Amino acid sequence: MVTFLSGGTGTPKLLAGATAAFPPAETTVVANTGDDIELAGHLVCPDLDTVLFLGGRVLDRETWWGIDGDTARTHTELRRLADAAGLDSGPRYLSAESQTSGREIARWRRFSGVAEFMHIGDRDRAVHLTRTGLLDEGATLTEATERLADAFEVDMDLLPMSDDPVATLIHTPEGVMHFQEFWVARNGDPEVEDVEFRGSEAAEATDAVLSALSEPVVVGPSNPVTSIGPLVAIDGIERALRETAVVAVSPFVEDEVFSGPAAKLMEAVGYEASTAGVANAYPWADAFVLDEADGTDLDRPVVRTDTSMDDEEDAARVARAVRDAQEVTA
Ligand code: GDP
To answer: How far from 93 is each of 87, 243, 280, CA to CA, in Å?
Structure first.
């Protein structure tokens, strides 16, 4: 058995070709939920959904989000209506009072559906409606995710990191904004002063997550701050990582990041934006997989391979390196 910790791009890329080294029936994926938002009353879980669609063989692998070939008629009409009505395209937060009333899991990240600032495809939307419907009927996010994984015939076990709300909020000179405003609406442009995981002190790891973390863990090449940070901010998860064998794949080649805002965010929270910084952020990791061009000298065992993943063959190579690194930690 093995458990992967996942954000929405790097680890799913690895999972896409990991099946030979890590059979899906023996694999659990624990996904970050700090990026989730409630949009028009529907809970959108971008990282869970990328893994859901990957496991269901319907993921759009150009973007690493959404369903391949999905239409977006409702989204297009929402944009058109807002424009025709002269309404600002947002992101349009609900009032401060609304942020903490209503469905508990959506706290501190509630947006109106007017102008829909995130692109939501039509089939994709059906997932959010079903998930939210199940939550309204009394299911936990873990249970709702299990039902959706059944619907998409996902062979891996897929778990949200918690059934409690944790919201990734970016502090900028322009104010505090949810990660999705920072990344999707503002392209990662605002200066970052701090990153907050609101709710993480009270949030608990579920029994399913704690049980999954008693197995060897793989931290894929995810953003250490906004994808892995929310998980580690939950005490029970951090404790479990200290006790189990953990192999981490660097999302950097020395100080070059493959994609996304990891470098800027790491500097903002006091880490060097590099593989060395990732190792400092992951004191509980027992071994690392680094790119063959990455000469970083670490205080823990390292396995090197070409870690750039453009297809399943690349991912299979990185997965084999992860296996080799696991043997070093065993
Ligand atoms: P997010 O939820 O979309 O932010 O995605 P993740 O946190 O899962 O992944 C983003 C990280 O994946 C970035 O820091 C990238 O550097 C890393 N990444 C993307 N593609 C690759 C790749 O081909 N190889 C490696 N090693 N890392 C990658």
So the answer is: 13, 40, 35
Closest protein CA for atom 19 of ligand 1: 10
- Please tell me if the CB atom of residue 8 comes closer than 6 angstroms to any atom of ligand 1: yes
pLDDT at 329: 85
Structural domains in the chain (count)? 1
Q: Ligand 1 center to residue 137 CA distance, Å?
A: 35
Tokens of 279: 């190792």
Tens of pLDDT, residues 222-259: 999 999 999 999 999 999 999 999 999 999 999 999 99
Structural domain range at position 290:
2-329
Whichever domain contains 154, its CATH number is 3.40.50.10680
pLDDT of residue 230: 98
Q: Is 165 in the pocket of ligand 1 (CB under 6 A)?
A: no
pTM score, whole prediction: 0.98
Is the Cβ atom of 260 under 6 angstroms away from ligand 1? yes
pLDDT at 325: 98
Ligand 1 centroid from CA 327, angstroms = 24
CA of 100 to the centre of ligand 1 (A): 32
Q: Is the dihedral of CA 116, 119, 122, 126 positive or negative?
A: negative
CA–centroid distance, residue 104 to ligand 1 (Å): 30
13 lines ligand 1 (CB under 6 A): yes
pLDDT in tens, 161-180: 999 999 999 999 999 999 99
Query: Could you give the 3-state DSSP secondary structure of residue 98?
Result: helix
How many Å apart are CA 115 and CA 80, to the nearest integer?
Answer: 8
Rounded Cα distance, 212 and 250, in Å = 22
Say how many Å lie between the CA of residue 86 and the centre of ligand 1: 37
